[in-house]
Amino acid sequence: MTEISTAQGGAAAATTLPGTAAETSADRPWPLRMLSEKLKVHIERAPAVWVEGQIIQLNRRGSVSYVTLRDTDAEISLSLTIFNSTMNRLKTPLETGSRVVALVKPDFWMKTGRLSMQTRDVRPVGLGDLLARIEMLRRALTAEGLFDADRKLPLPVLPHRIGLITGRDSDAMKDVRRNAALRWPAVEFEIREVAVQGVNAVGQMRKALSELDADERVDVIVMARGGGSLEDLLPFSTEELIRAVSEAATPVVSAVGHEADRPLVDDVADVRASTPTDAAKQVVPDVAEELHRIHQCRASLRRCMVQFVAREEDQLTAMRSRPVLSNPEGMITVRHEELERLRARSLGAITTAVRRGEDRLQHLRAQVRALSPQKTLDRGYAVVQLDDRSVLRQATDAPAGTHLNVRVADGRLGARVTDNDENSRNETPDEH
Known about the structure:
The chain is α/β, with parallel strands linked by helices. Helices cover 39% and strands 24% of the residues. It folds into three domains: 31-125, CATH 2.40.50.140; 132-285, Succinyl-CoA synthetase domains (Rossmann fold), CATH 3.40.50; 376-431, no CATH class. It has helices spanning 32-44, 84-87, 127-144, 171-183, 201-214, 239-247, 265-268, 276-283, 287-320, 323-326, 328-370, 373-378; strands at residues 2-8, 11-17, 49-61, 64-70, 77-83, 99-109, 114-124, 161-166, 188-193, 220-225, 252-256, 271-272, 383-385, 403-408, 411-416. A five-stranded mixed barrel has the order 3-4-5-7-6. Helix 4 packs parallel to helix 8 (276-283) and helix 5 (201-214) packs parallel to helix 6. The model is unreliable at 1-14 (pLDDT under 50).
């Protein structure tokens, strides 16, 4: 909190003021001088900066010149204050329309609350400087890969609708439309008339390019201008427009008629045309040439078909003279006899396999029967079971009086144990 003593009406009073702007309110405002002081301190902290623009207004008043500087690519202006000491260092006097770079430092005049830009140095931008900047940007974008050939898109063979970005009612627009219609009368255009020079050129061309690129009906985009001075063509060498062209998904044709100093849009475009007329020739085919090619193709196709039919007729005649066609029954007879032989061999092989299988089956049946429990019973043996149907294996399991079930070869018998001789359990049947 800041303690400020003020004298009002001859009486001194202590007032406690907010320390920051966020702490002010309708009940606790700042004095206007306090805001001005803080603004001045804050603005004076800003360092000097070099800016570039075009002079649109120049007024000399005594020892001070007041200049209005406008951005070269946008509707943004700034007022500069230049003292005669700075102006006198210039070899060439400044004029309205000149392109300059200036070293400015913001300054706040507390008494009137006016912000001004004190100019410490100013330098005109000549043609050589502009070319050097364009070349520097060209090298930077080349190193980035924006001009690589593998990034360029092929033009469509026959575009149904052409997007055209050009000046309002310009000769370039008329040339493109007239020459394209002469070559292909059915061609259609989606035209965007924009500023192609001045401060609004870059923004309007980027907007038009974005709209046409988003239109699915547009197959190719042509950016056309009928030449001009280097200063007039500067919008076609700005980084914003170059990057917009490189990011377009639709093929872009650059048709800026200026051979001396190529703008950078020629390098980034998918196809470069020397003039708007050349662009129309590259974008759409010539209907007369295409019809001539169609006639040539039809004649070549007819000639090929005649030769093909003649060749096939010769081959058909040769085939008809062969024995296989002159006596086709002979081929069927040979195949019939071969089929009969194969059937006989198959039948013999199957019969032999069946007989062998029957023999093996009889042998296995005899083995199974020999090992059958019934055969054992047929030889005089019997199976003795207790009442719970368990087989009696030891004499100790059947004491005297135990009821037994005896199974013989042809039936079952009931028996009762009358004697249990444990000493004879290890004797063989022949010992009895």
